[in-house]
Specification:
By secondary structure, the chain is an alpha/beta fold. The protein has eight helices and 16 strands. The strands form four sheets. An eight-stranded mixed β-sheet has the order 5-10-2-1-13-15-16-14, sandwiched between helices. A four-stranded mixed β-sheet has the order 9-6-11-12. It starts with a strand and ends with a strand.
């Protein structure tokens, strides 16, 4: 849907209840102003907490949560049963009109390739990669004037649920919708030349620069899947990807309305 804004919301942006309220109030306000918005959320800390309650130990390889069958049950229950309806309820409480969607209705996924750790190759289990997006339910929500809130749970080609990286899922959906823009809410000003120095903020990036920056260690850790998946979405026709500091109230609203530039803008 042309004109739609896809917002990836997760990580530390979901940790502080006060900040959560501010961010969701902004999203609800933008939607009330007629801007079609899709939210793809995470929920990693909630999943880890639930796993510990069940006696399951969280294990990560290259940033991916190793997901066996028992872990996948916890992941789906937390994301679809707690986090997603919680965000929908808060948006509606802020005067918005939101519809929650399990990612199983949106993301068709295949099993991800094995990960590498110090001990060698590791089977990531039910970690998935997005093969294709089914956008009908999202479009219906937007056509009804609703904010679509989508979980990063995929429908596996074996019929079961798959655990998806929320950054990758958001970028895939933005590309499939031919969205106007994709916004990654972050707890940093944007892409930094030196991660320890906020003054090293890189204001504009081109896709052709990403590989070199990754090789040089400028783009690292959690920024890697964000940038790689964003590049794929831009090649699909997405106009731009923006990294916005979610810690500063009002920033996202100003960026979407064109009153302020995003921390970092990534384009073709």
């Amino acid at each position: 849907m042309s004109g739609a804004v896809v917002i990836k919301y997760g990580g530390s942006a979901m940790d502080d209840p006060a900040k959560v309220g501010e961010i969701l109030a902004e999203i609800a306000g933008l939607a009330r102003g007629g801007i079609p918005i899709v939210v793809v959320h995470g929920g990693g800390k909630e999943i880890s907490a639930e796993m510990k309650k069940r006696g399951l130990k969280p294990v990560f390889v290259e940033g991916f949560r190793v997901t066996n069958e028992a872990t996948m049950v916890a992941v789906e229950e937390v994301l679809d049963g707690k986090v997603n309806p919680g965000i929908v309820a808060q948006l509606n409480g802020q005067g918005g009109k939101a519809r929650g969607l399990s990612g199983r209705k949106v993301f068709l996924a295949r099993k991800a390739v094995a990960g590498l750790s110090e001990g060698g190759v590791v089977d990531l289990g039910r970690v998935g990669e997005v093969e294709r997006c089914l956008v009908d339910e999202v479009r219906k929500a937007l056509a009804a004037g609703e904010t679509a809130v989508v979980s990063p749970v995929g429908q596996g080609n074996d019929g079961g649920a798959m655990n998806l990286n929320a950054d990758v899922a958001a970028a895939a959906l933005a590309g499939a919708l031919a969205a106007e823009r994709l916004i990654f809410l972050s707890d940093v000003p944007g892409v930094l030349g030196d991660r320890r120095d906020p003054a090293s903020l890189i204001r504009e990036l081109r896709v052709m620069e990403l590989a070199k920056m990754e090789e040089g260690g400028v783009i690292r850790a959690g920024m890697i899947p964000k940038c790689r998946s964003a590049a794929v979405a831009l090649r699909q026709g997405l106009k731009r990807v923006e990294f916005v500091d979610g810690r500063v109230a009002g920033t996202m609203t100003k960026v979407v309305k064109g009153e302020e530039k995003a921390g970092t803008i990534l384009t073709m």
